[in-house]
Known about the structure:
The complex is a heterodimer of chains A (about 240) and B (about 300).
Chain A (H helix, E strand, L loop, with lengths): L2 E4 L5 E6 L1 H13 L2 H4 L3 H10 L15 H27 L8 H14 L8 H8 L5 H19 L7 H21 L7 H51 L1
Antiparallel strand pairs in A: 1-2
Helix pairs in contact in A: 1-3, 1-4, 4-7, 5-9, 7-8, 8-9
Chain B lengths: L30 E3 L2 E3 L1 H15 L3 H8 L3 H13 L6 E5 L5 H24 L5 H13 L6 E6 L2 H14 L5 E5 L12 E7 L8 H11 E12 L5 H23 L2 H13 L3 H10 L3 E8 L4 E7 L2
Parallel strand pairs in B: 3-4, 3-6, 4-5, 6-7
Antiparallel strand pairs in B: 1-2, 7-9, 8-9
Helix pairs in contact in B: 2-8, 3-4, 8-9
Amino acid sequence: PSHSYTGQGGQESEDYESEEQLQRRILTAALEFVPEHGWTAEAIAEGAKTLGLSVAAAGMFHSDGSELILHFVSECNAKLSELLEKEQKLVQLGEAEKKPTDEFLRDAVEARLRMLIPYIEKWPQALSVLLLPRNIPSSLSLLTSMIDDIWHYAGDQSTDFNWYTRRAVLTSIYNTAELVMLQDSSPGFEDTWRFLENRVADAMNMSHTASQVQSTGEAVVQGLMGAAVTVSSAETSRALR
Amino acid sequence: AALWLCRARPLLCPGRGVPRPLRGLAAGPEMHFGFQSVTEEERREKIYQVFESVAKKYDVMNNSMTLGIHRVWKDILVHKMNPSPGTLLLDVAGGTGDIAFRFINYVRSVRERQLQRKLKHHQDLSWQEIFENYQEDKSNSLGDSQVVVCDINREMLKVGKQKAQHLGYSEGLSWVLGNAEELPFDDDKFDVYTIAFGIRNVTRIDLALQEAYRVLKPGGRFLCLEFSHVSNPLLSRLYDLYSFQVIPVLGEVIAGDWKSYQYLVESIRQFPPQEELKAMIEDAGFFKVDYENLNFGIVAIHSGFKL
């Protein structure tokens, strides 16, 4: 329900804000304090303080920081979509080259993972909270929609089984790269980016290998057929002699 | 004013046929005092007398009536509050200080954990710096948190102050004589407002809720712990049996005061149920109003925010 936020003097301010909007503002303000306090009610309390609200406002949220983490993930996904949208516009206007698929995927995943860097120390805590049964529906849906977004901007228009394969592959690439990043101490996370590059390359090769295997298979079958025909005709001709 | 005594209440069906006043407002001059019908002024006076007489035995009676469970309820309230150091709490009808002491303990332990974490982070401190940190600790074990205990009844406050001295609570605690319907505090002062087992005894609940809204800071939280209604029929019968048969007897045996505990039990039945209280809290202007039943509704914690 929208209401007006009454200021100290009892005068109503111009902007009408709903409960959800206010909650989102508090969570955004709280992100600043996460590196110090972790994904906790304390960070939310500090965030509320910066907005001029009482620290008790943190009581609106769960004490394990679930809402804060989910809010952060959804904000990051939104930022990624914006970024990909902008890039697509540039390509459409002819101001940029269309990237090959592997490069596109690599850059998109890297951009998304880079958003974790300021919070990387406390991110393992966040991941464990996201895996709580209570949060799994939300965290899973955020993950799948992000992956879907990336493939959409990569130009995927498949309507067959490939749709599932592509998303499963990219999801596993993203998850494994995220885990590598948590333990990466190399300068500028270069180990992670190299890992990412290799995984994307593997995925690309796998699809080539798959079609190779198929054509090899066909060749083998044809060879066997030919051998069988040769053997049977040789038998027949010997029997006839 | 009409004053009819309904002593001969059939034991198995209490609470029926008694006119219930409008939500939080006096229906004309008639108000309820337990199952009696009285005027506003009479009600206030009678309640003052009740608590004046029970003050000394208040804690003992609480423990025996609720079999000690009231302590758990109060712990849950403070846990739900989850106060961070620096919180300013107003505990209304806080009488003997139960909520205030729990608040202080909670904040103290949170502060200790905070300081431990801070020290762990700073691995290479010189001895001088460590010494200074510990000095700071001593003078700031509560992290600037404070609780103001406000009660309308002098006797209850007296008992509370004595308890505080006895248990060793001194800093961050103040005692104020005041009426929940007209609090002696400025606007937008407190982070949290609690009223535990007190709102039932307030004559104009709507005024108390409005005052709560007034004295809370924007973003502040209202928490109310109170006896409420049990919807489970079997449990409700057992609870009624226990309330009307056992509690007044305990009152007579332990505190020598049957009437006060009869009032207590009756007032619980007269108090609005969960949803109605929630609506009243929303009327006062609070948002995100919610309640949590404890022990199947024997007790409920209502929470709202001033947004």
